[in-house]
Design goal:
Elements: E1 11-15, H1 22-33, E2 36-39, H2 40-53, H3 61-69, E3 73-77, E4 84-88, E5 91-92, H4 94-98, H5 100-109, H6 113-124, E6 132-136, H7 139-143, E7 149-154, H8 157-170, H9 177-193, E8 206-209, H10 215-229
Parallel strand pairs: 1-6, 1-7, 2-6, 7-8
Antiparallel strand pairs: 3-4, 4-5
Helix pairs in contact: 1-10, 2-5, 2-6, 3-6, 5-9, 8-9
The structure holds cytidine-5'-monophosphate (C5P).
Length: 233
């Protein structure tokens, strides 16, 4: 039947706040299923970085919307583990995009409707066979409302700050746990209270609280939910 779920590549959406484990879990799931992977946060981060590099104001909605639509960004996937490198105008910005400054800027530009609109079709274009795991804030609510399985991952702010701390330290970045917790709380507030595509679970999403859960267990939980949601696939 045209337009039915079965004639499109399947999508699993993973939404939730920063540090809930979405990124790591999505990448492992994509690898396990042999599917594509969309890190939508990286697109918002790349818009913010490109804007900074061009000396643009982060509240100039019209100009940022145009930038989002024509963003010269490319994802390159490692043949070894499938993890993506991100190129902005051919410059490898994978590491700088992960920094907290870029995350805070991203959350600012992400509140602008023109930026969200500018990135919409680019995100939907990731949905190709054999399937897509999409990581973000509004994957299940706005970008892929007809997704086959919608997961909302959460964890307490303290646990998320600890995870972020470890991640950034492992990458050799200099960070403080206290400032990370503050940053996480203010970013949660901004992402949850904005007018367009606020961070919230889709009505048909399944919430998984990952506080105290090892990554492997989160992955197994979602694989089991997928097996239940897609009998015979
Ligand atoms: O997930 P990540 O921390 O990389 O996202 C950075 C910021 O981009 C988030 O704080 C959020 O404001 C924004 N974002 C969004 N919608 C998405 C993904 C990210 O608004 N789908």
């Amino acid at each position: 039947m045209p337009g039915s779920k079965t004639d499109r590549a399947p999508v699993i959406t993973l939404d939730g706040p920063g540090g809930s484990g979405k990124g790591t879990v999505s990448l492992i799931l994509a690898r396990r299923l042999g599917w594509h992977f969309l890190d939508s946060g990286a697109l918002y981060r790349a818009v913010a970085l490109a804007a900074r590099r061009r000396g643009m104001k982060l509240d100039d909605e019209e100009a940022l919307g145009r930038l989002a639509l024509a963003l010269p960004v490319q994802f390159k996937y490692s043949e070894i583990n499938g993890s993506p490198s991100i190129l902005l105008e051919k410059d490898d910005v994978t590491l700088v995009l992960r920094g907290e400054a870029c995350g805070a800027d991203a959350s600012q530009v992400a509140a602008l409707p023109a930026v969200r609109e500018g990135l919409l079709e680019r995100q939907r274009a990731f949905r190709t066979a054999p399937g897509l795991v999409a990581d973000g804030r509004d994957m299940g609510t706005v970008v892929f409302p007809d997704a086959d399985l919608k997961i909302f991952l959460t964890a307490t702010p303290e646990e998320r700050a600890r995870r972020r701390y470890k991640q950034l330290k492992d990458k050799g970045m200099d960070v403080s746990l206290v400032s990370l917790l503050e940053e996480i709380e203010s970013r949660d507030a901004r992402d949850s209270n904005r007018e367009v595509a606020p961070l919230k679970p889709a009505e048909d999403a399944i919430t998984v609280d990952t506080t105290g859960m090892a990554i492997d267990r989160v992955v197994e939980t979602i694989m089991a939910l997928w097996a239940e949601a897609s009998p015979g696939r």
